[in-house]
Amino acid sequence: MSTIAAVSTPNAAGGIAVIRISGENALDVAERIFTPSGNRSIKDMSGYTCAYGIAHDNGERLDDCILTVFRAPHSYTGEDVVEISCHGGIWVTKRILRAILKNGAENAGAGEFTKRAYLNGKLDLTQAEAVMDIISAKGDRELKMAENLREGAAFRKAEKCSDRLMKILGDLAAWADYPEEDIPEVEPANLCRELAEVRKDLLSLVENYDCGRIIREGVSAAIVGRPNVGKSTLFNCLSGCERSIVTNIAGTTRDVVEESVRIGDSVLRLADTAGIRQTDDIIEGIGVDIAEKLIDSSELIIAVFDGNSPLTEDDLKLLEKIDNKKTVAVVNKSDLGICKEISEIERHIQHTVYLSAKESDGIEKLQTAIEKVLEINESSFSSAAVANERQKKCIDSALVCVESAVSALENGELLDAVNVLIDEAEQYLLSLMGKKVTDAVVDEVFSRFCVGK
Ligand code: GDP
Question: Which of 395, 388, 393, 379 lies closest to 213, judged by CA?
Answer without folding.
Answer: 388
